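Take a look at my tokenised protein here and describe the backbone shape.
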Amino acid sequence: MPLGTELAHKLRDRLTYRGRKFAFEVAQLRLPNGAEGEWECIRHPGGALAVPVTNDGQLVLVRQYRFAMQGRLLEFPAGTVELGEDPAATIRREIEEETGYAAATWHCLGDFPIAPGYSDELIYAFLATDLTKLDKPPLQDDDEDIEVVLMTPEVFEETVRSGVMVDAKTVTSYFLAKPFLAGSN
């Protein structure tokens, strides 16, 4: 059997809570090596993220309030994938709603787990270019507090190094997109 294909055996579920965007599960498992224990997991439908780049090479980010962090984080626009929705459709909608831009060209950067120690959430990352500023202002959801921020890749990297709160999916996606950005090394 190839490495990593053995699965844990679920012995029993102890608790499941279903919220608006995700579920929380506590289960007793037997691992492939025979060890038994109890594990917690956030079950999440996944998220789609765009690295939007304007025609003059600026990154389009959002500064968004995040309850769990009790503050604003710098992020690329992203959204939860709805049941049965293609992640590409999710991010096309979200980039317009959160930033007020639409992209004519899309490039898939891949997908990756965001916090595999406690969640099954995957982020589907895309590079969005050939941006057009929409005539209407961004349309935020009722539970969002978002400010659009433009910055060069150099300023973004300095911001990350400076200790400003930037979420991991944004940093990861930036480095996935960096080879496609004009003037990158």
Observations:
- The first helix runs from residue 87 to 99.
